[in-house]
Amino acid sequence: MSEAKQSLIVYSDSLDPWLNLAAEEYMLANLPPESVLLFLWQNENTVVIGRNQNAWKECAWQQLEQNGGKLARRLSGGGAVYHDLGNLNFSFLASKEQYDVEKQLSVILEALKMNQIDASFAGRNDLLVGGKKISGQAFCSGAQADLHHGTLLVQADLDKMFTYLHPARQKMVSKGIDSVRARVGNLTDFNDRISVSMLWRSLEESFARRYGKSQRVASMREITDGKLDQLYAKHTSWEWRIGRSPVFDVSFKEYFEWGEIEIGLGVRKGRIDNCIVFSDAMDEAWVRGLARAFTGLCLDLGELLAAVDQLAPGGEPQVLADLTVWMQTWRI
User: Fold this and answer.
1) What is the torsion angle, in degrees rounded to the nearest 10, for the CA atoms of residue 215, residue 32, residue 27 and residue 240?
2) According to the model, what pLDDT value does residue 185 have?
3) According to CATH, where is 3.30.930.10 located in the chain?
C-alpha cells in the first residue's frame, strides 16, 4: 500500500448530530483520491442508531426528545450509541487504496497509550480496557472511499445512556453478562486525569505519527461550507431518522453472534410486496440487499432460500450460513 498523498484532520465546532453526520456523508462522497481524513466531533445529548435499526425498538427516542435530545441515524451498520459532551467521536475516511482498519485502530490505541491506558480490540467492533467497553465502532463502504468511525467514552453520563438505549436482553445473555452497565466504562475509570481535550490532542498527534504530519487541519465548515443543505435536510427528516412503525403480515426475529435481525414481510395475493430488514449487523449494505432480494418473490420458503443463496455474504461469512439454517425453521 502506498503512502497517502494527502492526510487531513477536520474538526467540528458544532454539537448538532444532524449537521455532523451530514458533513461526514459529504466528506465520504467527496474525498480526493489517495487521501486519508480524520474527523473529530462531538454531539450533545444524542442517540445515534445504525443504518438498518428500528428506532421504535432500539431506544426511548420520544423520551430523549422530550428532554431536549436528538435522535440521529448514521450511514453505517451496528447498534445504537449515546453521545454527550463526555464522549469524543472519531471518523476515518480513506480512499479505497488507503483504507486500513488495523492502521486506523493503531491511531486510537496509540492515543490511549499516550494517556496511560492500554486498550484492545475485541468482538466485532469493541475497544476494551480492563474488560470494559470504552468504544464502539462501525463501518461503511462508499463508492470511492470507505468510512470507519466510532465513539470514545471519556466521561459520558452512563445513567442517561442506560435510560435511552434498549439493548436486546438476548444480546446480554449471549455475552454472559446480565447487565449492559456491567460491560461499559469511561476512560476516567482508568485514568482520572484524562479529558476530552487531552484525548483530542493525542489523536491528532497519533494520526500525524502514522500518516505523516497532516498537510493541514481544517474546520468542518471550511470543508463543507454551503454544500450541506440537502444532506442536512435528509438527516433531520422523520423518514430517515425514524420512519413509520411498520405492521407486517409475517415477521421473524433472531439473535446471532454477528447481531440481531428482524425480517418483516408484507404479503399481497401470496407475493411479498414489501420487505424491511432491521438489524445491527455490521455489513449494512448486505442487510439492505436482503430486503431487495425478497421483495417481489412469492411467499415460498424455497424461493426465499434460493434468493439468499444468490447473495454474497459480505464481510461476515457466517451470516449466510446462519441465515439459511434459521430460515429453514420458518413456518410459512
Assistant:
1) -160
2) 95
3) 6-241
Residue 72 contacts residue 49 (beta carbons within 8 Å): yes
pLDDT tens per residue across span 124-182: 788 999 999 999 999 999 999 999 999 999 999 999 999 999 865 544 444 444 456 77
Q: What is the DSSP letter of 92?
A: E
Report CA-CA distances (Å) from 240 to 21, 54, 101, 267, 330. Answer: 12, 11, 28, 24, 30
Where, residue-wise, is CATH 3.30.390.50 in the chain?
A: 250-327
Q: Supply 114's cell numbers.
A: 499516550
In the DSSP assignment, the letter for residue 61 is: H
How are beta strands 250-256 and 81-83 bridged, if at all? unpaired
Collapsing DSSP to helix, strand or coil, 253 comes out as strand
Edge-to-edge strand ranges of the sheet holding 35-41: 120-122, 126-129, 132-141, 145-153, 87-95, 35-41, 6-11, 216-219
- Residues 315-318: contacts with CB within 8 Å, 24+ apart? 315/282, 315/283, 315/286, 316/124, 316/258, 316/281, 316/282, 316/283, 316/286, 318/256, 318/257, 318/258
* Burial call 244-261: b when 16+ CB within 10 Å, e when fewer: eeeeeeeebeebbebbbb
Taking the C-alpha atoms of residue 312 and residue 290, their distance in angstroms, rounded to an integer, is 10
Q: How far is CA 3 from the centre of its chain?
A: 27
Cα–Cα distance, 42 to 291 (Å, whole number) = 33
Predicted pLDDT at 226: 86
| Residue that is written with C-alpha cell 445504525 in the block | 50
Is 6-241 a CATH 3.10.20.90 domain? no
Please report where in the chains the cell 454477528 appears, as a residue. 258
Architecture of domain 250-327: 2-Layer Sandwich (3.30)
pTM of the model: 0.86
